[in-house]
Amino acid sequence: MYFGLNEPEVIEKKNEIEKVFDYKEDLEELGKKLDKKNRENFSKEDFDSIFITSTEILEDINLTRQNENVNFDERIEKLKEEALKTEILFSSEDFDIFGSMSEDITKINNLGNQKHREIMKNKFRLLEITKNTENEQYVKHLTEIIKNLDKAMDKAKFGYKLNAFFASTLPLNNKEYNILSIDPQNALESLKEYDKINLYNIKLNQETKAIALTNIAYFDNNNKTLPLGMNVSDKILVDMSRLKLELKKQKLFRINQEINELQVKTKIICVYEYEDLRKE
Description:
Oligomer: single chain
Largest sheet: 4 strands, mixed
Structural class: alpha+beta
């Protein structure tokens, strides 16, 4: 466990007691509400771009947003290799076939203990990765994704008050798209091999420009059988440049991690608590 960072918090407001979101108790109900709102507010084009931010391509999105002259040849080659391993990479001449490849719509999947017949989104298809993909084409797709994300964020309003977290070895960057986790342990998991980690606790409010990555962000709901909820992840997409962050508190923790019976490693975690003061 990490320091009880997701314990319930109680705030006094106008002589009333307001319970702030509790991860373990409230995620199932909140996930359904957020998923329903997402399906009402966003288009398939929005969801396709939102899905891409849940992958390693988020790094390229941020680089392109800040500098259009980035060369992604290394990334493109890695994507091609990965696509070949999954046997879905086609030449550019075959792209129409690739784009319209039939899936088994009768296949039954399970999500949140509910059955459905939906297909999970695929980053290779959305980025149109083929054997002939080059940097110019890749950047063009990234630029379109950024436009879609900006339009989606214009429509976004989170609507709830809760803490969300992300971990980094770097100082806070207030110009990037970022992925937060509702559970701080999930945020820390990606950097578990590091000895010193910055854990950023962002207090979101009802007006925060944020988009929860609910089930509909991960699946094409063509058959209309996808369950409501946040069963794939607890992630939230934010545009840091749209948050009005104020540092409220800073803490430092040292924890001992057992490597084996004879060896213990000390990890340092610096926790920065920010509040989004944005108001419409």
